[in-house]
Design a protein that fits this description.
This is ATP-dependent helicase HrpB. InterPro entries: CON_HrpB, DEAD/DEAH_box_helicase_dom, Helicase-assoc_dom, Helicase_ATP-bd, Helicase_C-like, HrpB, HrpB_DEXH, P-loop_NTPase. Pfam families: CON_HrpB, DEAD, Helicase_C, HrpB_C. The chain is about 35% helix and about 20% strand. The chain has about 850 residues and is of the alpha/beta class.
């Protein structure tokens, strides 16, 4: 036994640690036997006391296979001592001691029984894959252990994991099994640019076929590339048995790929990353690795999850290569260069950092967690993604004020995303949603299955989801349809499971396109879209984004759509699946509110009664009565946008502001207020609003009296001193009142005046009770600058003679006395005498 399963060498230490500690980490390479042998060996431990072991496997295929392998080792049928639970399927009984479950199932079990009575050991297998559900289940399990079950053991198993970091976080010892991995030789075959991946992989498989012995396992990103590679290999005519292996295959087909060929024919297995771990594929001696995998990535800016093809990480590449060295020395053909290998990212990113967190947040709300960060996380959920998930769950009526609702609890009964769960509930006739026909639930079952599975129709079929419902129903009734049969079989299997759960029968009656749209809107309430122009391919979503249908799509005849699938896109998105919406139906979901706003073109406050879905307007009717408070609010908002210039006070206001702001600088203890543009706009409700009670138009605004309103901004005692301390104008010897230009920052005021008007003035004028001299800009008779001075006496004494000499011939009609101290000041040219 030990020879076959190297992990057994670590069993004594593991038994000891589990006896002494509540959490233990086991690190063992692929093929060591940790998934199939250890749970059996631990069944009779004293601390288990006859309780069950629950083992979490990240994939359905692995869960079934591991359970079947353990049952075979005990020479029993699955469902006796060893059983499994996966979505819509379980093989367990009251005698089951070890249950292998997939992601989500363990969370459901914890929610159903908070203390996990009857369970003594939880095993998290392949934890290095860091799936969202595994992280969630571990966080909940740790809290169960801490609060309710201090006797519960947790065993975390991984092939490649930063055990030291995890050990420090959980205060858990690490047990290491070295395994018995045979050496694997790596050959690097950099892929040619612009050559399809399936073609490159096929060439490498052909090369490996002739150079090596043993079965070949080739890794490709997804089912599409696998099917293309299978077609190319069939055309090659190699004497091989070719087997696809991916998650959507039937269990029978998956088993054919895993088990040895019954006639001993050499096999080529074309697999996704599903074959990296857990599964033991018999006979593999050669691996061909394309170097890519397809992973779900959530874009928080768009609220969408999309599959993205990414370069494998180093740990994943090592695991893939290791599949060739389980039975003996093997070979791995890597379709990239050694330079690329050196720069691969070390570990895969935990899904919790990229995923749609709506399912996680709903589960935690049911658990009673208000602060997501209060749990023990290996990697904490990003706060931004948590907030976005909460926003969606509020839209889906699953949360209210961040508390789970009765509807949210019902949604958790469905093993699916909250979006689909909300749609299914919306279709049931007993949910107080206006649905009377039980056949609608059968429609929802079909739509749920279509949304969760791959599209059965080719791209050229267009985006109409209603067409896919129709094709599925025609195929179900035995008609021939132009769709992928194997995909339709998977969809029907899933739809059947949903019908069973919903307790409804199949329905053959025609489905209205808008009924499909109504159900899609229940799942994707934020993806209601309105056509931007008649027969246009461009639609605006209720969040403001624009998305396009494929060119010439028949759905362009529809003014409203509920969009089920679209890409995130950097600019305009692409609509892949959608269904028409009935505008009258939309009216029942629209939010109605009175909108009061400023119509700049008409120069007035206007009000309309609107019905909207998000930012999309369904209808609007004008309102004649606008409350005083609403008008004032809109006017203040408009002024903040356009500025106080709208009042028509520019010159008066600017001069008044500068005078007050100067005094604020000069006389800091007097209490002169801040009357800058920014502060006045911030305080409109205080000083201007009382004068807006009967105002609704721009012309009425511009009739408001500046002096009256501005005088209310500060106390009367300050206002009465303004003209004395900072006069708008000052008299000069000619008898003129000359304007002063003040500045907000308290610089000296400036007077621009022709020097002939100052004859006889000996000292520079001053303001602020004589404390602040003004700056004189002395002008020629032609109003050209002559001199700038703050010392008039010095000008007359030292500079005037030169100015007189230069200008008297240019302006002979004007007065240029030799003695400016005693000369009479004049406003214009000299008067004629006689």
């Amino acid at each position: 036994m030990k020879e076959l399963y190297p992990v057994l060498e670590a069993l004594p230490e593991l038994r000891q640690k589990l006896g002494e500690h509540r959490i233990v980490i086991l690190q063992a390479p692929p093929g060591a036997g940790k998934s199939t042998v250890l749970p059996l060996e631990l069944m009779n431990e004293a601390w288990l006391a006859g309780k069950k072991t629950i083992m979490l496997e990240p994939r359905r295929l692995a869960a079934r296979s591991v359970a079947m392998r353990m049952a075979a080792l005990r020479q029993q049928e699955v469902g006796n001592a060893i059983g499994y639970r996966v979505r819509f399927e379980n093989r367990v009984s009251e005698n089951t001691r070890i249950e292998v479950v997939t992601e989500g199932i363990l969370t459901r079990m914890i929610q159903g029984d908070n203390s996990l009575e009857g369970v003594g050991l939880l095993i998290f297998d392949e934890f290095h894959e860091r799936s969202l559900q595994a992280d969630l289940a571990l966080a909940l399990s740790l809290q169960v252990q801490q609060v309710l079950r201090d006797d519960l053991r947790i065993l975390i198993m991984s092939a490649t994991l930063d055990s030291a970091k995890l050990s420090a976080l959980l205060n858990a010892p690490v047990v290491t099994s070295l395994g018995r991995q045979f050496p694997v030789t790596h050959q690097y075959l950099p892929a040619e640019q612009h050559v399809p991946l399936a073609v490159t992989v096929t060439k490498a498989i052909r090369k490996a076929w002739f150079e090596q012995k043993g079965d070949i396992l080739a890794f490709l990103p997804g089912a599409g590339e696998i099917q293309r590679a299978a077609e190319l290999l069939e055309n090659e005519g190699l004497p091989a048995s070719i087997h696809p292996l991916f998650g959507d295959l039937s269990f029978g087909k998956q088993q054919e790929a895993i088990m040895p060929h019954p006639q001993g024919i050499r096999k080529i297995v074309l697999a996704t990353s599903i074959a990296e771990t857990s599964l033991t594929i018999e006979g593999i001696g050669v691996v061909v690795d394309c170097g890519y995998s397809r992973v779900p990535r959530f874009d928080p800016r768009s609220g969408l999850t999309r599959l993205e093809t990414v370069r494998v990480t180093k740990d994943a590449a090592d695991q893939r290569a290791g599949r060739a060295g389980r039975l003996g020395p093997g070979v791995c053909y890597r379709l990239w260069s050694e330079g690329v290998q050196m720069n691969l990212v070390a570990n895969r990113t935990p899904e919790i950092l990229d995923a749609d967190l709506a399912p996680l947040v709903l589960e935690l709300s049911q658990w009673g967690v208000k602060d997501v960060q209060s749990l023990t996380w290996v990697t904490a959920p990003p706060p931004g993604a948590v907030n976005q998930a909460k926003e969606l769950l509020h839209q889906l009526e699953a949360l209210e004020n961040d508390q789970i609702t009765a509807r949210g609890k019902k949604m958790l009964r469905f093993p699916t995303h909250p979006r689909i769960a909300h749609m299914l509930l919306e279709a049931l006739p007993d949910q107080d949603n206006g649905v009377k026909d039980p056949a609608i639930a059968a429609v929802a079952a079909d739509i749920a299955a279509l949304l969760e599975e791959r599209d059965p129709l080719p791209k050229e079929a267009g985006a109409d989801l209603s067409l896919r419902v129709e094709v599925l129903r025609r195929w179900r009734s035995g008609e021939k349809v132009a769709a992928e049969r194997n995909v339709l079989e998977r969809i029907e299997k899933l739809a059947s499971a949903w019908r069973k759960l919903l307790k409804v029968n199949t329905a053959g009656t025609p489905v209205a396109d808008t009924e499909t749209g109504r159900l899609v809107m229940a799942a994707y309430p934020e993806r209601v879209a309105r056509q931007m122009e008649k027969h246009s391919e461009r639609y605006k979503l209720m969040n403001g984004r624009v998305a396009k249908l494929p060119p010439h799509d028949p759905l362009t005849r529809e003014p409203w759509l509920a969009v089920a699938q679209l890409d995130a896109g950097s600019g305009e998105g692409k609509i892949f699946q959608a269904a028409p919406l009935d505008e009258q139906e939309l009216m029942t979901h629209a939010a109605e509110k009175q909108t009061v706003s400023w119509d700049d073109e008409r120069g007035m406050v206007v009000a309309v009664q609107e019905k909207r879905i998000g930012i999309l307007l369904l209808s609007a009717r004008p309102l004649n009565v606008i409350s005083e408070a609403q008008r004032i609010e809109v006017l203040c908002a408009m002024l903040r946008t356009q500025g106080l210039k709208v009042l028509g006070w520019e010159e008066k206001l600017a001069s008044w502001q500068a005078r007050v702001m100067s005094l604020r600088q000069w006389r800091t203890n007097d209490g002169w207020p801040d009357v800058s543009e920014q502060h006045l706009l911030e305080t409109l409700e205080t000083w201007l609003a009382p004068f807006l009670t009967n105002i609704g138009k721009r012309t009425e605004l511009q009739k408001l009296e500046a002096e009256t309103i501005l005088s209310t901004i500060f106390p009367w005692e300050l206002g009465s001193r303004l003209d004395a301390l900072a006069p708008e104008r000052l008299p000069v010897p000619s008898g003129s009142l000359i304007r002063l230009n003040y500045f907000d920052d308290g610089r000296p005021p400036v007077m621009e005046v022709r020097l002939q008007e100052l004859f006889g003035m000996l000292e520079t004028p001053a303001v602020n009770e004589g404390r602040n001299k003004i700056i004189l800009h002395l002008l020629s008779p032609g109003y050209k600058p002559v001199q700038v001075t703050q010392d008039l006496r010095s000008f007359w004494s030292n500079t005037y003679a030169e100015v007189r000499k230069e200008l008297r011939t240019r302006y002979p009609k004007h007065s240029w006395p030799e003695d400016p101290w005693t000369a009479q000041a004049v406003r214009g040219a000299k008067r004629r005498t006689g």
